[in-house]
Amino acid sequence: MIPDPSHAYETQAVQTGVPRGLGQTVGIPIHAAAGFQFETLEQAQSEFQQNTGLSYARLQNPTVRALEERLTTLEGGAATVALASGQAATLTAILSVCRAGDHVVSSSSLFGGTAGLLNNILPLMGISATLVPNTPEAVRGAMQDNTRLVWAEIIGNPAGDIPDLRGLADVAHAGGALLAVDSTWAGVGFLSRPLEHGADIVTHSLTKWAGGHGSVMGGSVTVGTAHDLSRNPIYTEGGEQSILNVRGEQALAWRQRWFGAHQLGMTLAPHSAFLLAQGLETLALRLTRQSETALSLAQWLGTHPRVGKVGYPGLPGSPWHAQAQQYLRGGFGAVLTFEVEDPATFLSRLQILRIVPNLGDSRTLVVHPWTTTHGRLPEPTRLAAGVTARTIRMSVGLEAVQDLQADIEQALG
Ligand SMILES: *Cc1c(COP(=O)(O)O)cnc(C)c1O
């Protein structure tokens, strides 16, 4: 079905990409195929020259394509490439605008895997990064002549910090760079649409709220229409044959598909695409409910005598509350942090909450970031990211709030 931009999120989430007609599946069908047929040599030859349709499933698959259409619609973008993981999406987004000699400025309040790519993997390819606090001023101070990309998370991990997206976009664009936003914690286009606030690229770990049940991995890169590539030599060099000349408005999306899927082979499996598309159908309901539960738990924990600092952008006392009100809608997200005296004892006593290093599940998951997700980062970096030895990160699920509260209460002792 053709997406209708006038429809509400909830309508688009269940209707986009679903075929209509006699005998059609209700829902997105799984195309379990590695290759697709041609009827003539000419068709095959033209497909190999243009790579626009279906030939080989590393490049494209109708199930993955239907998911991509749904993601593009929900994020309010122009094009999406869906990939095997969030990590694949991050790498693809960076490599789409950077090559050896180029530079990235990133917020230091960052998902550990992204920090790993920026600090350890991209330098092997000659791409350097500077990690700075999450403000336009700090980012401006770190910009260099060769900076091609500014990277931020809409809700930082795990501190829940909300960047000034418009400010970051202005700084990036003034320096001839693009702004990429990892919007995983905002759900696909639901709590926020960074493209509407000046971002050029939006990435997701679909493993989290898109899948929504802790059962599948995936990632995506969505681009808008407004990005300016005219100051990036990757796109402009080569005269008549430059990528920008040949691909026009599709240049950025084309390069992302070419890198992430065609060349690096980080392709999403059709069965995973099916589960992710199905997950998106209930994302609005889940994230609304999870945000409500997270807010009420954050309020309760904030008054609990055995609990230290509580971090949640929905609390009026949060340093990020004003920016959260500006950039988030429909809730403040499903993740909060709180400090307990003795994390090991607390975690071992839990009966309902589970110790799992994941997010966005239908079940409530907790981790101790200091020793796990952020354990490999130097201590000052961990502290800068809002992680102390007492911090617990909680991704709120769909259980009843009174049961979660009772479990936390008994575990606090
Ligand atoms: C999980 C996560 C990723 C990485 O995604 P994978 O699907 O695990 O590869 C990237 N960014 C954020 C914010 C995440 O939470």
Give the key terms.
single chain; alpha/beta; Aspartate Aminotransferase, domain 2; seven-stranded mixed sheet; five-stranded mixed sheet; 12 strands; globular; binds pyridoxal-5'-phosphate; PyrdxlP-dep_Trfase
Number of domains: 2
Compute the average pLDDT.
95
CATH top level assignment of the largest domain = Alpha Beta
Largest sheet: 7 strands, mixed
CATH superfamily of the largest domain: Type I PLP-dependent aspartate aminotransferase-like (Major domain)
Question: Which structural class matches the secondary elements?
Answer: alpha/beta
Order of helices and strands: HHHEHEHEHEHEEEHHHHHEHEHEEHEH
Helicity range of the residues?
25-40%
Beta-strand percent range? 5-15%
CATH third-level topology of the largest domain? Aspartate Aminotransferase, domain 2
Bound molecules: pyridoxal-5'-phosphate
The separation of the N and C termini measures 54 Å
Instruction: Supply Rg.
Output: 21 Å
Strand order of the largest sheet: 1-7-6-5-4-2-3
CATH architecture of the largest domain: 3-Layer(aba) Sandwich
> Low-confidence spans: pLDDT under 50, at least 5 residues?
none
Outline: globular
EC number: 2.5.1.47, 2.5.1.49
GO cellular component, one term: cytoplasm
Keywords: Pyridoxal phosphate, Transferase
Family: Belongs to the trans-sulfuration enzymes family.
